[in-house]
Structure formats: C-alpha cells, structure tokens
C-alpha cells in the first residue's frame, strides 16, 4: 500500500473503485467539517455506488456523485453550508463540492480538480465570490483520474461533456472508519 498523506485531523481514507481503476481520497475534517461529514455520510450510505462521472472537462475537472448511467439524478439530502471560505484551495488533485449558482446549494455531487483552478476559490461573501468548497484530496490513483480526464465526451440528456463510455463508481470502501457525529 502507498504511504498515507495526512490531510485532515485524522485520516479518513475512502477508496473509490471505478470501471477505470481505483483512487483513494482523504478528507479534511478539520478545516472542512461540514463538507467532509456530508461526503462521508453519502459514502457510508452507499449513495455513490452505481453513479457515474457525468461531466469531464480536460484541463479542468471531472465531476460525479449524482447521476446514474441512465443520466437519472439520484435524490439527495438537504444542501449544506458552503465552506469555500476555510482556506483550502482548488488545486490539482483536490475534491470540491459541486453546486448550482447559489453558494449554499451543494448536496452529493463533487468534482476532482485536474488542474490548479484558483478562479474557483473563495474571493468574497457574495454570490459570485463564494467559490467552491474543497474538502478532500486524492492521495493515490491520480493516474485513474488522469485517465478519466482523457475520455471522449458527448452531449447526453441535456448534459454536456458526458463521457461516451460511462465511468461508473462500482464500490466505495471507507478505511479507518469512525462514526459521523
């Protein structure tokens, strides 16, 4: 097993097994507790299993966590508070909460930055300046993320940048799991 990079208060590691391979993320529980606990709860509930990475933009990000292979949106819990103002930056290999134009609208969808995307960072307490909350980092399997980034995309069911061949989350494994409060 690869060395563990301590990113959060204690190392919650989550392994995503996809049809392209596995990648591991570690949560930042100290500086992004709301987003981290939200993501962890979705993982514990098995929510992500069977979802796809439905939006892939080369040089930007890969997004998943909410749609099935038939492009049907899964029902989610209520939106969470945006923690983009906690000092974590949208850099290569970090995970951030996906949301609508409303700053505090994130639920289950997330994206993985495949570049340094500082324009997504918090800039102001305004709708336009809130940014996207980083809550985790890829600690192993970045080659799988890079493989995702290179897939051919199309438009499907009203969504752009959809992989032509679905990238499916087959299994989510939580390592060193501790209960969410």
TrEMBL record:
Residues of the PPIase cyclophilin-type domain: 10-174
Major enzyme class: isomerase
Molecular function (Gene Ontology), one example: peptidyl-prolyl cis-trans isomerase activity
Isomerase in keyword set: yes
Function recorded in the entry: PPIases accelerate the folding of proteins. It catalyzes the cis-trans isomerization of proline imidic peptide bonds in oligopeptides.
GO biological process: protein folding
The entry's keywords: Isomerase, Rotamase
Family assignment from sequence similarity: Belongs to the cyclophilin-type PPIase family.
Reactions accelerated catalytically: [protein]-peptidylproline (omega=180) = [protein]-peptidylproline (omega=0)
SUPFAM superfamilies with a match to the protein in the record: Cyclophilin-like
Superkingdom classification of source: Bacteria
Keyword match Transport: no
EC number: 5.2.1.8
Record's protein name: Peptidyl-prolyl cis-trans isomerase
